[in-house]
Amino acid sequence: MLTNVMYRTSATATGGGRNGHTEVDDGSAGFDLAVPKALGGSSDQGMNPEKLFAMGYSSCFIGALHHYAASQKVKVPASTSVKVSVGIGPREDGGFGLDVQIIVAIPGMDRAQADALIQGAHHICPYSHATSNTLAIAPVLA
User: How does residue 134 score in pLDDT terms, banded at 50, 70 and 90?
Assistant: First the structure.
């Protein structure tokens, strides 16, 4: 449980859900949504919830990586990247679930040190924490 909410934002979805529109309530970003071909849509070019989740998680995780590295007095190379892959499909118990993979590239860093940073980032990342009881996520070094 949070001890202090330091920032809050909100977004509103309208229309047909995956064929609707979503927008941040302050107007800073908005997207028309489209169902991907694999889920019965006509194109993979549109925005969808999985793409939005992947963008949010990857940017949050790289921020957590930099934050954790700084706490350990380690400099993360500027060429570091975090790729989050998000899949969706049916669950055994009904409904749908997500499959998430986090791939971290830290060029030039010792593997043991990079692994320690990745695990530390995974521990403090709010996306990792929020999904810890519902997703099996094991961040890997690319």
Answer: confident
What is the enclosing helix (H) or strand (E) of 50? helix 49-71
Are 37 and 83 found together in one domain? no
For residues 118 and 84, give the distance between their C-alpha atoms in angstroms, rounded to a whole number: 13
Mean pLDDT of 97-116: 95
Residue 73: which of 120, 39, 37, 28 has the closest Cα? 120
CA distances 25 to 8, 9, 47, Å, are 11, 8, 18
60 in the same domain as 21: no
Q: Which domain holds residue 53?
A: 49-141
Same domain, yes or no: 117 and 60 = yes
Residue 28 — very low, low, confident or very high, per pLDDT cuts 50/70/90? very high
Q: How confident is the model at residue 42 (pLDDT cuts 50, 70, 90)?
A: confident
Mean predicted confidence (pLDDT) in 82-108: 95
Assign 63 to helix, strand or coil. Answer: helix
| 129 shares its domain with 65 | yes
Q: For the chain, what is the total number of helices (H) and then of strands (E)?
A: 3, 6
